[in-house]
Amino acid sequence: MLLTSHQLAYLFILGGVYIIITGLTSKTLISESDIIATDEERARAKATPFGRVICVAIGLGGCIYGIYLILR
Is residue 13 a contact partner of residue 66, using CB atoms and an 8 Å limit? Predict the structure, then answer.
């Protein structure tokens, strides 16, 4: 399945918004997609202000790139 540039742009924007919301609201910034994290791993992955800024910056980058693709 091939995506048009507009569909890809909307995916980037949607993904960026998701990352921003996750970065701002999550108590831990850890991926549990493969295996469930233990309590020790969650304690080490506490969401720090710097980690939140990184997540928001990555999310904003995705949103900006999506807008760029729409306007191009």
Answer: yes
The tokens for 62 are 């995705």
How many Å apart are CA 24 and CA 52, to the nearest integer? 6
The predicted-structure confidence for 20-51, as pLDDT tens digits, reads as follows 999 999 887 776 666 777 778 777 778 888 98
Cβ(28)–Cβ(38) below 8 Å: no
Q: What's the pTM?
A: 0.81
Q: What is the residue-wise DSSP string for 1-70? A: -PPPHHHHHHHHHHHHHHHHHHHHH-SB----SSSPPPHHHHHHTB--HHHHHHHHHHHHHHHHHHHHHH
Tokens of 1: 């399945």
Residues 39, 21 contacting (CB under 8 angstroms): no
